Amino acid sequence: MSLADRTESILLINEAHNSGARREKCCELLELSIRTLERWEQNPEIEDGRKGPHHSPHALSSEEKDLIIAVANSEKYRDLSPAKIVPTLADEGKYIASESSFFRVLRSEKMMSHRSNSSPRKVAPPEELKATMPNEIWSWDITYLKTAIRGKFYYLYLPMDVFSRMIVHWEIHEFENSDLSSLMIENACLKNNVTKDQVVLHSDNGGPMKGATMLATLQRIGVVPSFSRPSVSNDNPYSESLFKTLKYCPQYPEKGFESLEGAKAWMTKFVHWYNQIHLHSSIKFVTPYSRHYGQDAEVLQKRKIVYAAAKAKNPKRWSRQTRCWDQDNQVFLNPRKVKEEVKL
Predict the structure, then answer these.
(1) Where are the alpha helices (DSSP H) in 109-164?
(2) What would the DSSP string read from start to end of 248-282?
(3) Contact 260, 154 (CB under 8 A)
(4) Which one of 24, 157, 247, 285 is most buried, counting C-beta atoms within 10 A?
(5) Which domain holds residue 163?
(6) pLDDT tens digits, one per residue of 27-56
(7) Run of H or E including 148
């Protein structure tokens, strides 16, 4: 800061201080510390003693920087990174600058992104879906079930309700294809009395999910398809979470299933436990079955009464409100991220 700017800053701060403002706050507005202000007041006529930055004699000239940019954007090198441009030039008997200098110059010109046609494909995020009642949004996927024979698997077809987390149907087959997928989803709709245009079916981009037979069946029975982005498992989180619960279950056979009938028998027991016994952490620790059929409201109301009685009995143990047992009435699939505005 020049001597004139220093003098003006001291005058402004003194004027504000005489009007009742605190010196520390005035310094904050000018991005100064109070110690710097005190040092300036002690020696108001002394210039800044710090030596400014020196120009390096080894720095690249403007002509050399322009040459780096021209080479990096030339038809021969535009699809190569500086890590490959520099050795290629050396093979031709040329040296312009080091690899780090190439990176530094291109970064300063904001040219470190993909150039020409080498930019990767951009995939738009999937549409945000919201469920406010059962049988509005289903999520489904296929997972491998290990067998006792190495390299052989059974395939579990499993749709679930996003709102209630209940398994609405399941089938196990020895093959994975679109024909079996179309039969499975048709059976699931019949089993749950789903009407036309009632359910949105979300899945990943696997062949059984996007096959011609499957898509034709969905159109015929009036189910709206929804798909994840390619290679993004987070777009189908409910099914992925359910599969982890299934395969990390202590009763899951470590050595695999001996037969298809054995796999179906085990899955029947698991679905009963998951839907009607398992207290799901994402739906206030009620069972998916009770949530699906509207029985959770009574359960949660009883918990509220128990907690209210406990607080009335020992109020000093409760510094705040009791635990919230209100159920969420909206469940989102792939919700949009909302940026919070910072108020200054």
Answers:
(1) none
(2) TSTTS-TT-BSSHHHHHHHHHHHHHHHHHT--BGG
(3) yes
(4) 157
(5) 129-278
(6) 888 888 888 888 888 887 776 666 666 667
(7) none
